[in-house]
UniProtKB/TrEMBL annotation:
SUPFAM superfamilies: FMN-linked oxidoreductases
Domain DUS-like FMN-binding: 80-352
Catalytic activity, as annotated: 5,6-dihydrouridine(16) in tRNA + NAD(+) = uridine(16) in tRNA + NADH + H(+); 5,6-dihydrouridine(17) in tRNA + NAD(+) = uridine(17) in tRNA + NADH + H(+); 5,6-dihydrouridine(16) in tRNA + NADP(+) = uridine(16) in tRNA + NADPH + H(+); 5,6-dihydrouridine(17) in tRNA + NADP(+) = uridine(17) in tRNA + NADPH + H(+)
Lineage: Eukaryota, Viridiplantae, Streptophyta, Embryophyta, Tracheophyta
Species per Swiss-Prot/TrEMBL record: Artemisia annua (Sweet wormwood)
Alphabetized UniProt keyword annotations: Flavoprotein, FMN, Membrane, NAD, NADP, Oxidoreductase, Transmembrane, Transmembrane helix, tRNA processing
Cofactors (names): FMN
Protein name: tRNA-dihydrouridine(16/17) synthase [NAD(P)(+)]
CDD domains in the record: DUS_like_FMN
Source organism superkingdom: Eukaryota
GO function term, MF aspect, one: flavin adenine dinucleotide binding
C-alpha cells in the first residue's frame, strides 16, 4: 500500500506540472497574439495623447460639446484639406511647420482599412506632433465605418466622413458626394459614429444646386451628431476648381444656419484669400488643398509669383523657394516612410514650374521606375545648378497680420 501511495503522489505531481506547463503555454500564446494584434494598429511611433474633451460613447453630441472640443484644440483656423495620396504624414508635418494649425489625412477606404493590415500601415501613419488631426473615411456601411473608426479614434481629434468626393471612382464605389442622393444612409453613418466613438464626428460636404437643400442637409447632419462641418463651396458637378469659383455666400448661409463649428473650403490661393474668406463666410477656419501642394508654406504668408501683382507694393523675396521645401519634405519622408507614389506626386507639384523650364530633368525623373532618396536629392540640386530661380514672395507689410494666431 505504501508503494502504491508513493506512486500515486508522484504521478499526481507530474500531472499538476503538465497542467502548469500547458497553462503557461496558453498564456504565452495569448500574449503573443495580443502583441501581434496591437502591432497591426501601431500607427504612431509614440504613445497617443488623449484629449481632455474626449467623449463618452452614447453621449449625445450637443452644440455646447462641439464648441468645447473645438476650443480645447485651440480653434485652429488654417487647415490642410484631405487629399487622396497627398495629405500624408510628411506633407502634413511640412505644412504644420509653415503655419498650418490642423490637418486631415487622405481619404481612407473604410472597408479596405478594416480588412487589410498592409493598407492600414501604409496609408495611415501619425505621430505626437501631428495634432489636431482629422482622420477621413469614405463609407457606405455604418458597421464597417464604425469598425474602421475604432481603429483610429485614439490617434485623432475627429473622425471625418467624406461626403464630398465628386470623382467617378466615388460614383462607382457608392460613397462621397454620391451619397447626397441617399440621405437616410448618410444620417445612419453619422449617427453610428456619434453614438459609439470617444471622439467627435465631422463631415465634409459639397453644395446642392439649391441652397435650401444644402441647408436642410447641413441641419440633418448636425442633428445626427456631426460636431463640425466642412463645406466645399461647389456642387458635385463643379469639379474644376480653377475655372469655377467657390460660393462663399452659400457657405455663410450654412454657417448662419448651424450651431456647430463650420469650415470653408475653396478659393484659397494665398493669405489674402484666407482673410477675405473668413470675413465673407464667417467660417471658423479655412481648408486649402491644391495651392498647398504647390506651396506648402502658404499659411506662413508665402505665395508663388503667380499670385504677386505688379501693381501691389510690399511684395519681397521671402528667401525661400520650392526646391528648399522639396528638400525638407524628402527629409521628413526619410523619417516617416510613405509609398513612393506619394513622394513622386508631391515633387511634380512642388517643382512643376522648375520642370517646365528644364523638361529634360522632368523626363529623367519620370523614367525612373525605382526611386531613391539619393537620386531625388541629386535631382533637386541639379535643378539649382542649372540656374533655376523661383522664389516665394511675402508681403512684408502684412506679415504680422498673417500669423496663425492673428488671422
Amino acid at each position: 500500500m505504501r508503494i502504491i501511495r508513493m506512486l500515486m503522489k508522484k504521478y499526481h505531481y507530474m500531472y499538476l506540472n503538465l497542467i502548469g506547463v500547458r497553462v503557461i503555454q496558453v498564456f504565452v500564446v495569448i500574449q503573443v497574439q495580443m502583441a501581434v494584434n496591437n502591432a497591426d494598429d501601431d500607427f504612431c511611433s509614440e504613445p497617443p495623447q488623449t484629449h481632455p474633451q474626449s467623449l463618452t460613447p452614447n453621449n449625445h453630441m450637443t452644440p455646447e460639446k462641439a464648441w468645447a472640443h473645438w476650443t480645447s484644440l485651440g480653434s485652429p483656423k488654417l487647415i490642410v484639406a484631405p487629399m487622396v495620396d497627398n495629405s500624408e504624414l510628411p506633407f502634413r508635418l511640412l505644412c504644420r511647420k509653415y503655419g498650418a494649425t490642423a490637418a486631415y489625412t487622405p481619404m481612407l477606404h473604410s472597408r479596405i482599412f478594416t480588412e487589410n493590415e498592409k493598407y492600414r500601415s501604409q496609408e495611415f501613419t501619425t505621430c505626437q506632433e501631428d495634432r489636431p488631426l482629422f482622420v477621413q473615411f469614405c463609407a457606405n456601411d455604418p458597421d464597417t465605418l464604425l469598425e474602421a473608426a475604432r481603429r483610429v479614434e485614439d490617434y485623432c481629434d475627429y473622425v471625418d466622413i467624406n461626403l464630398g468626393c465628386p470623382q467617378r471612382i466615388a460614383k462607382r464605389g457608392n460613397y462621397g458626394a454620391f451619397l447626397m442622393d441617399k440621405l437616410p444612409l448618410v444620417k445612419s453613418l453619422v449617427e453610428k459614429l456619434a453614438q459609439n466613438l470617444n471622439v467627435p464626428v465631422s463631415c465634409k460636404i459639397r453644395l446642392f444646386p439649391d441652397l435650401e437643400d444644402t441647408l436642410k442637409y447641413a441641419k440633418m447632419l448636425q442633428d445626427a451628431g456631426c460636431a463640425l462641418l466642412a463645406v466645399h463651396g461647389r456642387t458635385r458637378d463643379e469639379k474644376d476648381g480653377k475655372k469655377i469659383r467657390a460660393n462663399w455666400k452659400a457657405i455663410r448661409a450654412v454657417k448662419n444656419a448651424l450651431q456647430i463649428p463650420v469650415l470653408a473650403n475653396g478659393n484659397i490661393r494665398h493669405m489674402d484669400d484666407v482673410k477675405q474668406c473668413l470675413e465673407e463666410t464667417g467660417a471658423d477656419g479655412v481648408l486649402s488643398a491644391e495651392t498647398l501642394l504647390e506651396n506648402p508654406a502658404l499659411f506662413a504668408g508665402f505665395r508663388t509669383v503667380e499670385w504677386v501683382s505688379d501693381s501691389e507694393d510690399g511684395n519681397q523675396d521671402g528667401k525661400l523657394d520650392q526646391a528648399e521645401l522639396a528638400l525638407e519634405y524628402l527629409k521628413l519622408c526619410e523619417k516617416y516612410p510613405v509609398p513612393w507614389r506619394m513622394i513622386r506626386a508631391h515633387l511634380h507639384k512642388m517643382l512643376g514650374e522648375w520642370f517646365r523650364i528644364h523638361p529634360h530633368v522632368r523626363d529623367d525623373f519620370n523614367s525612373q521606375h525605382i526611386l531613391s532618396f539619393e537620386f531625388l536629392y541629386d535631382m533637386v540640386n541639379r535643378l539649382r545648378d542649372l540656374g533655376v530661380s523661383r522664389p516665394l514672395y511675402v508681403k512684408n507689410t502684412c506679415l504680422d497680420d498673417m500669423s496663425p494666431n492673428r488671422v
